[in-house]
């Protein structure tokens, strides 16, 4: 059963509709309590270390909504990734506190080589002075989703075929 609010689910579907994009999921983190020293802890590996190092940890009242996805390594997935990269950069340039970044695990562990198996992409949406209610955050996600869906149609970005 889906545990995500409707606005989050719609954004998952929009991302997942793009060719070569897979395994879309998301989560929310309270960054306010994150300190610089915490970033070396593997439990915090999914956090944007470079961003948090610049501010010496999370800002007061800051939360981050993170969307994660993988690609299938096809040429279509690279086109979709390029579109997502442009879209997220454009959103940031217009004032949204958002970024796209890569995530991967070490190339090798005692259990074997994992290079080529762990690459993921994170869309980080930062909310400063987070409200007590999730509704304003969900409205931001809804606006981002509506914009992305509009640009997918406007630029005729290829989407996955719907199977009957």
Verbal overview:
This protein has 164 residues and is α+β, with helices and mostly antiparallel strands. 35% of the residues lie in helices and 23% in strands. The chain is built from four helices and six strands. The protein has a four-stranded antiparallel sheet, covered by helices on one side. Strand 4 and strand 5 (112-113) form a beta hairpin. Helix 1 runs parallel beside helix 4 (135-154). The model has no long low-confidence stretch (mean pLDDT 92).
Give a quick set of tags describing it.
single chain, 164 residues, alpha+beta, 4 helices, 6 strands, globular
Helix segment count?
4
Compute the average pLDDT. Answer: 92
Let me know the largest β-sheet.
4 strands, antiparallel
**Which range does the strand content fall in?**
15-25%
> Which segments are poorly predicted (pLDDT under 50) over 5 or more consecutive residues?
none
Number of strands: 6
Helix-strand category: alpha+beta
How are strands sequenced across the largest beta sheet?
A: 1-2-6-3
User: What's the helical proportion of residues?
Assistant: 25-40%
Cα(first) to Cα(last) distance is: 22 Å
- The SSE string, one letter per element, is HEHEHEEEEH
> Measured on Cα atoms, how large is the radius of gyration?
17 Å
Which geometry do the CA atoms define?
globular
Explain briefly what this protein structure is.
The protein is α+β, with helices and mostly antiparallel strands. It is built from 4 helices and 6 strands.
């Amino acid at each position: 059963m889906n545990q995500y609010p409707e606005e989050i689910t719609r954004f998952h579907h929009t991302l997942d509709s793009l060719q070569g994009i897979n395994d879309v999921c998301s989560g929310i983190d309270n960054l306010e309590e994150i300190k610089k020293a915490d970033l070396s802890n593997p439990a915090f590996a999914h956090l944007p270390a470079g961003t948090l190092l610049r501010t010496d940890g999370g800002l007061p009242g800051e939360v981050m909504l993170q969307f994660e996805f993988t690609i299938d390594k096809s040429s279509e997935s690279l086109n979709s990734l390029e579109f997502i990269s442009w879209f997220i950069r454009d959103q940031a340039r217009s004032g949204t506190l958002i970024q796209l970044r890569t995530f991967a695990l070490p190339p090798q562990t005692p259990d074997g080589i994992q290079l080529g198996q762990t690459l993921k992409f994170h869309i980080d949406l930062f909310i400063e002075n987070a409200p007590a209610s999730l509704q304003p955050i969900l409205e931001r996600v809804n606006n981002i989703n509506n914009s992305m869906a509009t640009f997918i149609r406007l630029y005729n970005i290829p989407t996955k075929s719907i199977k009957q």
